[in-house]
Design a protein that fits this description.
The chain folds into 2 domains: 219 residues, Carbamate kinase; 148 residues, VC0802-like (2-Layer Sandwich), CATH 3.30.2130.10. Helix 2 packs antiparallel against helix 3, helix 3 packs antiparallel against helix 4 and helix 11 packs antiparallel against helix 12. 37% of the residues lie in helices and 20% in strands. The chain is built from 14 helices and 15 strands. The longest helix is centred in the first third of the chain and has 23 residues. The strands form 3 sheets. It has an 8-stranded mixed sheet with strand order 3-4-2-1-7-9-10-8, with helices on both faces. It has a 5-stranded antiparallel sheet with strand order 12-11-13-15-14. The protein binds aspartic acid. The site of aspartic acid has 13 residues, from helix 8.
Length: 449
C-alpha cells in the first residue's frame, strides 16, 4: 500500500486536479492521499497559504475580511465546480472561512496556525468530495481522528511518539483516506502546523504510521538532478539515492523536500519516490536506506551561497587546553550557530551562515574573539559558497578529492576551505561566490559524461 502526497502546484487548478485524480485511479494501492493547499497556477499567482497569511494580518489589523475570504473561496470553487462536486462540500469550506471572523484575537496563540491549516484542511475535504464524484470510495479524515498528535509549538510542531501507533490503526482502512498535510493536533486539541512546506512531513509521518510500502511525493519536477539545471545543461536525473546522500545534497541547496520530512520514513525504512504530477509515468527519483551497488562514485553536486568564515590563528594553539571551547562559548553568547569548523595545528576556521550577522554584531564578535583569545591572526571572509560533492560510492574509490581539486584548479578556482565529512559521503569546498557556477560545471563534467 502506498501513501501519495500531492504538493500545492499539483492541486492549484482543476486541470491539475484532473491529473491527480487520474494518478489515484491508476493505482488502487494509493490508499492514503495527503494534500497541500492549492498552490500557484502560474508564477504571478499567490498560494492559498499566503492568502491565508494575508487574512490573518487583516484580522489582526481589524480590517474587512470579506474580500480576502471571497478570493480564497474562489480558488476552491473553481476546482470543485469543474467536477460538479456536491454543494455541501463547498458550503462547508465557505462556512469554515467565515468562521474565522468570530475567532478571538487576544490570548489565542493558535490563531495563526488555525487559519493557515485551513488551506490544507479545506482542500482535503474538496479532494475527497471530488474523488467521490469519480466513483472512488474516498473520505476526508481530520488529523485529530487520524491520531496525528503534535507538540504545542505553534508554527513549528513536532510529531509526538505515540502518534505513530494511533495512525497505524488506520492501516487496514478500506476507504481511500484523504488527509490534509501541514498540521496536527496537540493533546489539548489545538491546531499546530509544522514549519512552512510541512505537508511533506505529514506524508512521511503517515507512511511511517501505516507502514506503507512506498511514500510517493508528487511535485512538479521529474525528480532530483545530479546538478542544478540552471548551472549545467540537462544534468542527469538521479534514479536512486540514499537518505544520507539526500541529506547532504539538501543541505547545500537541493530543496525538493522539506528538511525534516525524511526523518519518519527514514526511521521506518520506507522508501520515498519523488514523482512529477505532470509526467506520472516517468520513474522519478527514489530515496532508499541503503544502496548495494554504486555505479558511479559521485551521485550529485550541490552548492549554496551565503556563508562567512572566521579564521583564527595562534602559535602553539594546540597546546592551549580548552581553546576551541572558549571560541565556541563566544559564538554561543552571541547566539550564533556555526556550520563547519575545519582546523589545523595552529589555526581554526569557523564557517557560519551570513544571515546571522549584521555589520554591528560582526564587529562586536571579532572584538570579543580578539579580547578573549588574543590570536596572532584574525580574519573574516564574506560571500563564500559551499560546494558539496556527494556520493556513497566515494568511499570505495581512491582519488575523488584529487580529481575534484584538479578540476577546480584548471578553472583557477581558489579554495578557501576543504572539508571531508567523517562520513565520507561528501567532500565540501568553500569558494568565492562568483566562482560557484564555474566550479559546479567543472566538477559535473569531471564525474558525469
Ligand atoms: N501549504 C503549506 C505551505 O505553503 C504547506 C505545504 O504546502 O507543504 O507552506
Amino acid at each position: 500500500m502506498k501513501v501519495a502526497k500531492f504538493g500545492g502546484s499539483s492541486l492549484a487548478s482543476s486541470q491539475q486536479v484532473k491529473k491527480v485524480v487520474e494518478i489515484i485511479k491508476a493505482d488502487p494501492q494509493r490508499r492514503f492521499i495527503v494534500v497541500s493547499a492549492p498552490g500557484k497556477r502560474d508564477s504571478k499567482d499567490t498560494k492559498v497559504t499566503d492568502l491565508l497569511i494575508q487574512l490573518y494580518q487583516t484580522k489582526i489589523a481589524a480590517g474587512d475580511l470579506d474580500p480576502i475570504i471571497q478570493q480564497i473561496f474562489t480558488r476552491y470553487q473553481e476546482i470543485g465546480e469543474a467536477f460538479s462536486v456536491n454543494d455541501d462540500t463547498l458550503t462547508a469550506i465557505q462556512y469554515n472561512l467565515n468562521s474565522f471572523k468570530e475567532l478571538p484575537v487576544v490570548d489565542n496563540p493558535h490563531l495563526y496556525d488555525t487559519i493557515l491549516a485551513s488551506g490544507e484542511d479545506n482542500n482535503a475535504k474538496l479532494i475527497a468530495g471530488i474523488l467521490q464524484t469519480q466513483g472512488i470510495a474516498a473520505r476526508y479524515i481530520n488529523p485529530k481522528e487520524l491520531g496525528l498528535l503534535v507538540s504545542d509549538e505553534p508554527g513549528n510542531a513536532r510529531i509526538l511518539r505515540n502518534a505513530y501507533d494511533l495512525i497505524s490503526r488506520w492501516s487496514q482502512s478500506q476507504e481511500v483516506l484523504v488527509i490534509p498535510g501541514f498540521f496536527g493536533y496537540t493533546e489539548a486539541g489545538k491546531i499546530c502546523t509544522f514549519s512552512r512546506g510541512g505537508s511533506d512531513i505529514t506524508g512521511s509521518i503517515v507512511a511511517a504510521g501505516v507502514k506503507a510500502d512506498l511514500y510517493e511525493n508528487f511535485t512538479d519536477v521529474d525528480g532530483i538532478y545530479s546538478a542544478h539545471p540552471g548551472y549545467v545543461h540537462q544534468p542527469e536525473l538521479i534514479k536512486e539515492l540514499t537518505y544520507r546522500e539526500m541529506r547532504e545534497l539538501a543541505y547545500a541547496g537541493f530543496s525538493v523536500f522539506h528538511d525534516e520530512a525524511l526523518m519518519p520514513s527514514y526511521r521506518a525504512h520506507i522508501p520515498v519516490v519523488i514523482k512529477n504530477t505532470n509526467n506520472p509515468t516517468a520513474p522519478g527519483t527514489k530515496i532508499i536506506n541503503t544502496r548495494e551497488r554504486h555505479e558511479k562514485p559521485v551521485i550529485g553536486i550541490a552548492s549554496d551561497e551565503g556563508f562567512t568564515m572566521i579564521y583564527i590563528n595562534k602559535y602553539l594553539m594546540n597546546r592551549e587546553v580548552g581553546f576551541t571551547r572558549r571560541i565556541l562559548t563566544i559564538f554561543e553568547e552571541f547566539g550564533l550557530g556555526y556550520e563547519h569548523m575545519p582546523s589545523g595545528i595552529d589555526d581554526i576556521s569557523i564557517v557560519l551562515r551570513a544571515n546571522q550577522l549584521t555589520p554591528e554584531t560582526e564587529e562586536k564578535l571579532l572584538q570579543a574573539i580578539a579580547d578573549e583569545i588574543k590570536p596572532d591572526e584574525l580574519r573574516i571572509t564574506h560571500d563564500l559558497s559551499m560546494i558539496m560533492v556527494v556520493g556513497e560510492g566515494m568511499r570505495q574509490r581512491v582519488g575523488i578529492t584529487a580529481e575534484s581539486t584538479a578540476a577546480l584548479a584548471r578553472k583557477k578556482i581558489n579554495l578557501e576551505m576543504i572539508n571531508q565529512g567523517s562520513s565520507e559521503v561528501s567532500i565540501m569546498f568553500g569558494i568565492h561566490k562568483e566562482q560557484e557556477k564555474s566550479a559546479i560545471r567543472a566538477l559535473y563534467y569531471t564525474f558525469f559524461d
